[in-house]
Amino acid sequence: AFGPIVAFVLVSALTGGAMFLALRTSSLPIALLGLSGGFAAPLSLTLAGAAPAGLVLYVLVLDAAMVALSIRRGWWSLSFMSLVASALYEAVWMHSGTTVAAWHAGVLVVLAGVFGAVPAFAMGEAAGGDEAPPPLARLTRYAAIVVPLAFGAALTLTGGASAPSFATMLLK
Question: DSSP letters of 95-140?
C-alpha cells in the first residue's frame, strides 16, 4: 500500500516517460496520451492537505514540458490542449474559493508567460519570405493573453471573491 505522495510521483514518472517516448518516436498520439495522463494525475489522487503551491508547480512544469515539446516538434495542438487544461484547472480552482487572489494572479502570469511569451520567442515572427507561424500556434499565443485577462477581470470584478460570487453578482 503506497501513500498518495508515492502514487503521485509514480504517475508523474509515467507522464514523463510518455513525453520521452513521444519525443523519441515523433508520435503526437503518445504525447496527447501523456498530456491527458499528466493532467488527470492530480485529479485521480487525493492529496489531503496539499499546499496549492505543489499543484501550481506541477502544472507549471507540465505546461513547460508540453510547450517545449510543441516547439521542438511543431505540435501546436499539444500546446493548445495544455493551455485549455490549465485554464480549466484555474477555473475550478477559482470556483472553489479556497485560495487567495494572489495565487490566482501568479497562475495567470504563468499562463501568459508559458503559453504566450515562450512560443513567441522560440518561433519569432515571419520575416521577408519566411513561412508564417501555423494558425494553431498563433491561436495559442493569443489565447495565452485573452484567458488570463478574462480570469483577471473576474478576480477584479469580484474583489478576489470566488466564481460563484461573480456569477451571483452578474445575476443581480
Answer: HHT-S-HHHHHHHHHHHHIIIIIHHHHHH----TTPPPPPHHHHHH
* Alpha-carbon span 104 to 97, nearest angstrom: 11
CA distance 18 to 158: 40
Give which of 108, 141, 145, 143 is closest to 123, Cα–Cα. Answer: 141
* 151 Cβ contact list (under 8 Å, min separation 6): 87, 90, 91, 94, 104, 108
Asked whether the beta carbons of 67 and 115 are under 8 A apart, the reply is yes
pLDDT band at 24 (very low <50, low <70, confident <90, very high): very high
Percent of the chain at pLDDT > 90 equals 10
Max Cα-Cα span within the chain: 61
With cut-offs at 50, 70 and 90, classify the pLDDT of residue 130: low
| In contact, 71 and 122? CB cutoff 8 Å | yes
pTM of the model: 0.73
Radius of gyration over every alpha carbon of the chain, rounded to an integer in angstroms = 17
CA 27, distance to chain mean position in Å, is 21
* Residue 117, C-beta contacts closer than 8 angstroms, at least 6 positions apart: 144
